[in-house]
Design brief:
Blueprint (H helix, E strand, L loop, with lengths): L13 E5 L2 E5 L1 H11 L5 H28 L3 E7 L2 E7 L1 E3 L2 E3 L5 H28 L3 E3 L2 H4 L7 E3 L5 H21 L7 H13 L4 H22 L4 H20 L3
Parallel strand pairs: 2-3
Antiparallel strand pairs: 1-2, 3-4, 5-6, 7-8
Helix pairs in contact: 1-2, 2-3, 2-5, 3-5, 3-6, 6-7, 7-8
């Protein structure tokens, strides 16, 4: 999946370690994050978008990384233009290196840990808002992207605080739900793959790819017709096409 593969390192990458995980941020990540917030003519709101996307995607990938660590798998994180990826690394095995063998259930839990970390972060924000006297109006219209943001309000709070809360909630809840759709290479696509392969080891991969094709195509149409989002239509159309390409290349 070229769209979601980690790009090669550049001299402009931001590199740091967090909780023992090597993290690399490709410069194109900042460009895409900036474009997401560019619909606002307010520079402060654009910077809030960039900050919220960076923190939210980092939390998402750390969810995967901590789940891998729990099962004995080392990993590193790369944030790039299409989001982020947590890459498992080989571990020392005698005089060479080997990969950790994970069961399907473990793979499913690792895949869910990313969106799960985002949901927990959103719950944490809601609790902080409630305990500090704020109000959040969170309903299905916001979750499914019909309205762009949940409404957050502090009676005497600043617009910057309210905007940051709204952005964090929308990114972590809405994007988390989208990430659980059974479309490759989203987390939901990996969960579907391992779930089907447990009951059908021989044809599970092929079936999961067909699910990805049809759900991706359906989401592309929904994005174009109902959400009027060209970005959603193009993204899921591309993911559906990539799944179909895998089916053809492997003759599944």
């Amino acid at each position: 999946m070229l769209l979601f593969q980690a790009p090669p390192p550049t001299r402009f990458d931001l590199n740091f370690n967090l909780f023992g995980f090597p993290i690399r941020v490709h410069p194109f990540f900042w460009v895409i994050a900036f474009l997401f917030g560019a619909s606002s003519n307010n520079l402060i709101n654009i910077l809030l978008w960039v900050f919220a996307i960076f923190i939210s995607i980092l939390i998402h990938e750390l969810g995967h990384a901590f789940a891998m660590r729990y099962y004995g798998q080392s990993s590193r994180i790369v944030l790039h233009g299409a989001g982020g990826v947590t890459i498992p690394e080989s571990i020392a095995w005698g005089s060479s290196y080997a990969n950790v063998a994970l069961s399907p259930n473990q793979q499913m839990l690792i895949a869910f840990a990313g969106p799960g970390a985002g949901f927990l972060f959103a719950i944490f924000i809601l609790l902080v808002v409630a305990l500090t006297g704020g109000v959040v109006d969170l309903n299905a219209a916001y979750l499914f992207g019909i309205l762009p943001f949940p409404y957050a309000h502090y009676p005497n709070g600043s617009n910057i605080v309210n905007s940051l809360i709204m952005t964090f909630l929308w990114v972590n809840i809405f994007w988390g739900l989208v990430n659980l759709l059974p479309v490759y290479p989203l987390d939901g696509g990996h969960i579907t793959r391992y779930a089907i392969m447990q009951s059908d080891p021989w044809n599970g991969l092929r079936k999961s790819l067909w699910v990805s094709v049809f759900v991706g195509a359906g989401m592309a149409l929904a994005g174009l017709i109902f959400l009027e989002s060209m970005y959603t239509a193009l993204l899921f159309g591309l993911l559906a096409f990539q799944s179909y390409q895998i089916l053809q290349s492997r003759q599944l």
